[in-house]
Specification:
This protein is mostly helical. The protein is built from 9 helices and 2 strands. It has one domain. A two-stranded antiparallel sheet has the order 1-2. The radius of gyration is 15 Å and the shape is globular.
């Protein structure tokens, strides 16, 4: 799964530059398939979650790449999902259920819905850190 390998490779200061370049260039379209496989979310549901219009989907298929904006949303989803999965022994269904539950610490928003912005992504990652005994 290329996207998961890419996300896991981002662990040092130079990785911020690597991620920035990849986002500006736009993720390859197969990263969407990888994200769906990793999370168990259908492509249709992922497109809805990302707010992709039929025109945007058509352009992605034509160019073979996501826009920088949509690439960042896919990155947020994969990074948060892979980190949250550790809380649930990598159980995909339990992780997705947790991300779909309203969270009091997020004003009852679902973590999954928060991943469309940088601020929301940071809030979800902080929530995961708060629950992960390894991060303390």
């Amino acid at each position: 799964m290329q996207i998961l390998e890419f996300v896991r490779s981002l662990g040092n200061p130079s990785s911020d530059l690597k991620l920035h370049r990849a986002l500006i260039e736009g993720f390859p379209l197969n990263y969407v398939e990888d994200a769906c496989e990793l999370t168990g979310i259908s492509q249709k549901e992922l497109a809805r979650h990302l707010g992709l219009t039929p025109a945007a989907l058509s352009e992605m298929r034509r160019s073979g790449r996501l826009s920088p904006y949509d690439s960042e949303k896919v990155f947020n989803l994969v990074a948060a999902f892979s980190k949250a999965a550790l809380l649930f022994d990598n159980n995909k269904n339990a992780t997705l259920a947790w991300l779909n539950q309203p969270a009091p610490e997020l004003n009852n928003a679902r973590s999954l819905d928060m991943l469309t912005t940088y601020a929301g992504f940071r809030a979800v990652m902080s929530r995961i850190d708060d629950l992960d005994p390894e991060s303390r």
